[in-house]
Structure formats: structure tokens, C-alpha cells
């Protein structure tokens, strides 16, 4: 690596620090909870405008509605915000996929809405997860396209509106995009000390709707079929899966059912989350869930409708991901920095890209903490530091200073 090009790149990014920080503040001030369609759209438009001038074609896609089962067990259809794609094609050159999400976990009526600076930190909803990350992405691409490596590598940005609800609608778009590129960069925040995520566990969410038959609890108790009791048997069965297999956890998280105590309840809704370490775990869990359902499902008295599945397959450390992490570390070391990574139980769109065969690093956004809570913050200095890191990686890939991963992240196509 000739260091000069990287020093110039980082200096350029550092000069734009104030503008970049203001951009994070602007984006974070717009509420964009996943179901706040207008807010997500406003963030998508502002972000797309921020990428203007980088030579990319901008495509705004309307997604199909999000079909879900609500807390009462009813099917609902929710309109989501748009998905934005920015495509910079360079014929004959390899290309990189960069993804980020425009939604946050904070709904429109969340009390956590303001954005403020506090010493070395910026606080506010989504500053780390991931409006800061969107700005890191923009600054890194701008640095690439304004330097000598411009036009030597292709790239595509996808900004999806539904990451915080598990990317239920954008997942197929991400999987299709994964096939078009040689490396993936995802801009979730790193851990609070700057460590990146390596291997990630997989995750699935389910909603089980139990139906029985209502009856008067005194006069005709024998005619009733108690859906709360049936759900309790099911919950006990799935909770017993904990500890049976290392790396698998099951979390019954929500129950709603019943009403007046003199009525046999006829409906109960249960939601639960499962985390797994590998594809074999996931297959095992699916078999166990089938058995747990079968042990309760007895029509016409009791029926169980199970909705959901693994939305984030496990992301084991792969050779391709290792290649990218090593290249990032080399970029950090050019300016005397260091970079580490560690496995984590969390999951994100990086899981989906890996499952679709694209080697990726998924915590290239800002350094921050307190995410998904009202203590969320980002380290202001990390905005420039991480943009420099990602910009350096893009230049290194474009110039051949760093190698692209060989092949893809091959997986068992029968896996979840
Ligand atoms: Zn996120």
C-alpha cells in the first residue's frame, strides 16, 4: 500500500466533519419508526439527496405491504416506506454492495425525539443505529469518487425501511442484490469500544395463535376448550428446549388471551424468539416446534396456527468475511490505528447477505451505544474515523491494494 493516497483521503473526510455531523443531526431529528411511513420516506429522500453527485443512478422502490399477525391474532397489512437503491455501474470492474436502513425502533409517539451534543457524544434516536452509519457510508463513497480510484470499482447502495422489524419485506431485495456483488458492507454501529461484529447468531420470531371454544365457566365449563391453558402447555414445552442444545435459546416473550374470569377463553396469542448458532440448530428447533404444536393441536377442539420463522440465518465466520476484516485491519494500521472483531448474539441484514452467499462486514457504522433505548449515543469522532476506514477499504479494493474475497460464502442451500 502506498500510504499517501490514504492520508489524503482521510484528510479530506476530516475537513468535512462538521457537515457530516450536521447531516446526522438532520436525519436523526426525523422520526422514522418502522411503521411511521411518512417519516421513513422523509429519511429516504434526505439520504438519497445526500448521495447526489456521486454518479449513481437513484431508484426508489415501493415495497409490498408487511403482512403480520397482530397482538389479537388478526392478520394485518402495514404499508412501509420506500426502499432506495443507488447504483454506480462500472463495466468490467468488480462491485461492492453497501446497505443501511432508514427505520429506527422509535415509533412516532416515542418520548425520545430530540437530538443533542453532549461533550464528545451526539445523543438522540437512531444517531448510532443507524443514521450515523448512513453518513459514514456517504462520506466513504464521496471520498472514493473524489479521489484517483474513482470509477475503478462499481457499487450499489440499498437503504431498506424495515430492518428493525427483521427486514420481512426487503429480505428478497437484499438476497437478489447479494448475487450481483463481490463484497458487502453494512453500516450497523460497532460495539461501544469500536470492536466489529464477527460471527453472529441467527434469529427467528414466531407468533402462535391458539383457538379453543368459549363457554360459561360455571354452567357449561365442560363445553369450553381453554385456549389459555393450551397456550400454557405449549409455552412450557418450548421453554423446556432451553439448555438442551448449546447455542440455542428460546424466549417466550408475549402472551395475550382471555378476559372475564367467568368465561372459558377461546383465543390466546403467544410470541417468541429463538436464537441459534448454526443451520443444524435451526433445523432442530423447527422439528421441536412442530412437535410442540402437534402436542396441543387437536381439531376441532383446539387449533394452533404458527406464523413466522427464521428471518436472520446464522452468520458463522467465513473465509470471505475474514478476508474483508483483515483488509480493514490493514487499512486501520496505515494511520496507526487498530481494529478488532468478536462474535455477537445480535443479528442484522449482514446475516441475510451472508446467507445469500455474499461475504460481508456488518458493523461499519459509527461507534456508539445504548441503541434501542433512550440512552442511545454515537461517538462524534467515530464519524470521521469510520468513514476514513471504509473509504480506505473501497480505495484498496479498487486499486488492488486489498483483494476481494474468493468466491462467495457458500452455504447449504437446504439451510434456513
Ligand atoms: Zn440497525
Could you give a quick summary of the protein structure above?
The protein is of the alpha+beta class. It has helices at residues 3-15, 17-28, 37-50, 127-145, 171-178, 227-239, 279-294, 319-334, 349-355, 380-399; strands spanning 57-61, 66-69, 75-78, 83-88, 95-101, 116-118, 121-123, 154-160, 183-186, 196-200, 202-211, 215-216, 249-257, 263-264, 267-276, 303-312, 341-344, 360-361, 368-369, 377-379.
Give a description of the structure.
There is one protein chain. Helices cover 33% and strands 25% of the residues. The chain contains ten helices and 20 strands. The chain has helices spanning 3-15, 17-28, 37-50, 127-145, 171-178, 227-239, 279-294, 319-334, 349-355, 380-399, and strands at residues 57-61, 66-69, 75-78, 83-88, 95-101, 116-118, 121-123, 154-160, 183-186, 196-200, 202-211, 215-216, 249-257, 263-264, 267-276, 303-312, 341-344, 360-361, 368-369, 377-379. With 416 residues, it is an alpha+beta fold. It binds zinc ion.
Radius of gyration: 23 Å
The small molecules bound here are: zinc ion
Q: Which architecture name of the largest domain does CATH use?
A: 3-Layer(aba) Sandwich
Classified in CATH, the superfamily of the largest domain is Zn peptidases
End-to-end C-alpha gap: 40 Å
Classified by CATH, the class of the largest domain is Alpha Beta
Number of DSSP E strands: 20
What brief labels describe this structure?
binds zinc ion; 416 residues; alpha+beta; 25% strand; 10 helices; 4-stranded antiparallel sheet; 2 domains; single chain; disordered C terminus; Aminopeptidase; Alpha-Beta Plaits; 6-stranded mixed sheet; elongated
Amino acid at each position: 500500500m502506498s500510504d499517501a493516497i490514504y492520508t489524503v483521503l482521510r484528510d479530506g473526510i476530516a475537513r468535512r466533519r462538521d457537515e457530516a455531523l450536521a447531516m446526522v443531526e438532520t436525519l436523526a431529528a426525523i422520526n422514522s419508526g418502522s411503521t411511521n411511513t411518512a417519516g421513513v420516506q422523509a429519511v429516504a429522500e434526505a439520504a438519497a439527496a445526500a448521495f447526489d453527485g456521486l454518479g449513481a443512478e437513484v431508484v426508489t422502490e415501493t415495497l409490498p405491504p408487511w403482512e403480520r399477525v397482530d397482538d389479537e391474532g388478526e392478520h394485518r397489512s402495514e404499508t412501509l416506506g420506500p426502499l432506495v437503491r443507488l447504483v454506480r455501474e462500472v463495466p468490467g470492474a468488480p462491485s461492492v454492495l453497501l446497505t443501511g436502513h432508514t427505520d429506527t425502533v422509535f415509533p412516532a409517539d416515542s418520548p425520545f425525539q430530540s437530538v443533542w451534543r453532549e461533550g464528545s457524544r451526539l445523543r438522540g434516536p437512531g444517531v448510532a443505529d443507524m443514521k450515523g452509519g448512513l453518513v459514514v457510508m456517504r462520506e466513504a463513497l464521496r471520498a472514493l469518487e473524489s479521489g484517483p480510484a474513482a470509477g475503478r470499482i462499481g457499487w450499489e447502495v440499498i437503504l431498506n425501511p424495515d430492518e428493525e422489524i427483521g427486514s420481512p419485506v426487503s429480505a428478497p431485495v437484499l438476497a437478489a442484490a447479494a448475487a450481483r456483488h463481490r463484497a458487502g458492507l453494512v453500516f450497523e454501529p460497532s460495539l461501544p469500544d469500536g470492536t466489529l461484529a464477527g460471527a453472529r447468531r441467527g434469529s427467528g420470531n414466531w407468533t402462535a395463535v391458539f383457538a379453543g371454544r368459549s363457554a360459561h365457566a360455571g354452567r357449561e365449563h365442560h363445553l369450553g376448550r381453554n385456549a389459555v391453558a393450551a397456550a400454557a402447555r405449549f409455552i412450557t414445552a418450548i421453554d423446556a428446549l432451553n439448555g438442551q442444545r448449546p447455542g440455542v435459546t428460546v424466549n417466550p416473550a408475549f402472551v395475550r388471551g382471555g378476559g372475564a374470569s367467568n368465561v372459558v377463553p377461546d383465543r390466546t396469542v403467544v410470541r417468541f424468539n429463538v436464537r441459534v448458532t448454526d443451520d443444524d440448530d435451526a433445523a432442530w428447533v423447527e422439528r421441536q416446534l412442530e412437535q410442540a404444536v402437534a402436542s396441543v393441536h387437536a381439531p376441532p377442539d383446539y387449533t394452533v396456527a404458527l406464523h413466522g420463522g427464521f428471518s436472520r440465518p446464522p452468520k458463522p465466520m467465513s473465509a470471505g468475511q475474514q478476508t474483508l476484516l483483515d483488509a480493514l485491519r490493514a487499512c486501520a494500521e496505515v494511520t496507526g490505528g487498530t481494529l478488532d472483531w468478536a462474535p455477537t448474539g445480535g443479528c442484522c441484514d449482514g446475516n441475510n447477505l451472508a446467507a445469500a452467499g455474499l461475504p460481508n462486514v456488518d458493523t461499519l457504522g459509527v461507534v456508539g451505544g445504548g441503541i434501542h433505548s433512550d440512552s442511545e449515543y454515537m461517538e462524534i469522532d467515530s464519524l470521521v474515523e469510520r468513514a476514513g476506514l471504509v473509504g480506505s477499504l473501497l480505495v484498496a479494493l479498487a486499486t488492488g491494494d486489498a483483494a476481494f474475497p474468493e468466491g462467495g460464502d457458500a452455504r447449504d442451500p437446504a439451510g434456513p
